[in-house]
Write a structure and sequence with these properties.
single chain, about 80% helix, 9 helices, mainly alpha, about 200 residues, Growth Hormone, Chain: A
């Protein structure tokens, strides 16, 4: 049986880029996702708004996945959908960060809006990206590969979660550092998503 070396090389590159992307996304979760509620507390958001923040974005994100197939028809490829919504997700850290430096009485509602867009974008990306990777990873390697990728992503999540938790308080400058790091990590993810997509399409 003749194996095309170029195809093998593309698959190997795609797996390496996807692993790096998984670690970067773990950093996003550790420094960003895990501290959005703490960020709301630091902004002195009302308790009932924190309750909404903890429930509504996730609920709407789950509903949004029902329209993933219909939305995919509007894009030229799965790659396009993944890249657009992954970028949108990362960019949501910018307006969240803006709430630190331009406080107002409606900060809580703005944070809920930005967090909802963030969650919906992530939810739309996840199943499409999963379908892409299921095709890219050879069947006999899937268990080992996804186990390794998941472990490294969790390690990055834990390291950055602990690093962010080591900050003694949540001043404006520290919020800026945390969310800017999360934005940088998401854009770093975007770089590897582009590289993986280039290897697979």
């Amino acid at each position: 049986m003749c194996i095309d070396k170029a195809i093998v090389q593309k698959v190997e590159n795609a797996l390496k880029f996807s692993t790096a992307e998984g670690m970067a996304y773990g950093a996003v979760m550790g420094f960003g996702d895990n501290y959005i509620v703490a960020f709301a507390v630091a902004l002195q958001v009302q308790n009932y708004q924190i309750g909404i923040l903890c429930s509504v974005p996730g609920f709407l994100a789950s509903l949004a996945q029902l329209g993933d197939v219909a939305l995919l028809r509007r894009f030229k490829s799965r790659k396009s959908l993944v890249l657009v919504f992954a970028l949108l997700q990362g960019l949501m850290f910018l307006p969240m960060l803006g709430l630190t430096f331009f406080p107002s009485a409606s900060d809580g509602w703005w944070l809920i809006l930005f967090a909802t867009i963030y969650s919906i974008s992530a939810a739309l990306v996840s199943p499409v990206w999963g379908s892409i990777m299921a095709e890219v990873v050879p069947e006999h390697l899937r268990g080992r590969y996804f186990s390794l990728r998941g472990s490294l992503s969790t390690l990055a999540n834990t390291v950055f979660f602990m690093a962010a938790g080591g900050v003694p308080d949540f001043s404006g400058a520290q919020r800026a550092v945390g969310f800017c790091h999360s934005l940088w990590s998401r854009l770093y993810c975007q770089t590897y998503l582009l590289r993986t997509a280039h290897q697979t399409f």
